[in-house]
Amino acid sequence: MRMKQSVLAASLAVLAAVPCLAAIKAMTLTELMGITTEAAHVKITAKSTFHMDWPMQGAVWTKMHIQGESLRTLEPVDTDVVFMGSQDPADEWGMSEMPTLQDTRVGGEAVVFFNGNDKDVPGRLNRVYALDCVYRVEATFGTPVVIGKGEGFAFPENSKLDDVRATVRATHLELAKIQQAGK
Question: Are 1 and 127 in contact (CB under 8 A)?
Fold first, then answer.
């Protein structure tokens, strides 16, 4: 019995020492914009879930219809975006990395980063990667504010929407300049 407990304790110690393989990568605004093709200030007008056997059998995805303005190009945005996971308890398919229910509620405003026509997703859907790609917008003292998510996120602190709009646009123009110089 003592040997069995010792083996069990040693096995648990080894497992505890193994580093976690799944983690959310901290990204600056520049890094986030470097891996996404669009950043938009939007209103979420509809939300539903669907099954798609990608990247694994039985995966559940959430689809949101969004309308607003591109913060990169200042063009209108009226499209669907998807992310893997569901906040609907009936789906039984939550993911720790998916955007929060509060950030994706129908009728809410958000700043959303996504890849338009993502070539990696069957059907080339517009994909939102993770919780660091949706930032809720709330009116605070009459001013729209992007709710920050803490250290390690593109917007660590609450910021006025106008400031976020200017910063995203400036970052977009800087990234475009760097890309042009590299050609």
Answer: no
